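User: Sequence for YitT family protein below. Tokens please.
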Amino acid sequence: MSTPGRLSRRLFQLYGGLALYGASSALLVRSGLGLEPWNVLHQGLAARTGLSMGVVLTLLGAVLLLLWIPLRQRPGLGTVSNVLVIGFAMDATLSVLPGAHGLAARIALLVLGVVLNGAATGLYIAADFGPGPRDGLMTGLHRRTGRSIRLIRTCVEVTVVATGFALGGTVGVGTVLYALAIGPLAQFFLRVFALRPVPVPSRVVAGHEPERAILRR
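Assistant: Structure tokens for YitT family protein:
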């Protein structure tokens, strides 16, 4: 059961995390040293269509949600918010953030972008309002095909990067750094932002410690 205070914190984490995710992706764009896999595709499509990256991200997210239907995936508040908020936050940040001049500044933007992206991922996933359209696509394919999440994610993201690069998206050291760092960073920040379970009051007074405790010190 969620208390009003707990629900408020979850909503803050969701929308704060999604906004930070879009902003951190903009930092990677401005670094010019390589983007995360899906944004390589978004940038390539933006270059070919003349649309902004944020608009492309939003439109592609909506298309991916349609693919959830045959996969029998159910979107949550976090899923729909993911589609709407990240693209807007990315475009808003790109509109005020100038390009970096000099290698040191570009590396600083890259590292900051990757770390903030990990924090953003931990924030919105810990809010537990449902996966984003891209993650939901992968889990849906996993359920329908029986293949491992690792195999499906690898195949999807390699395809996405290759297609985005062919369309003009930026692939570089930042893409590799993101791929190596985002897992550990997301896991760390998930622990930082995890919500503690709501204690359930009990009318039973235990006379002794259970023999099989779930958590052992």
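Residues 84 and 174 are 25 Å apart (CA to CA).
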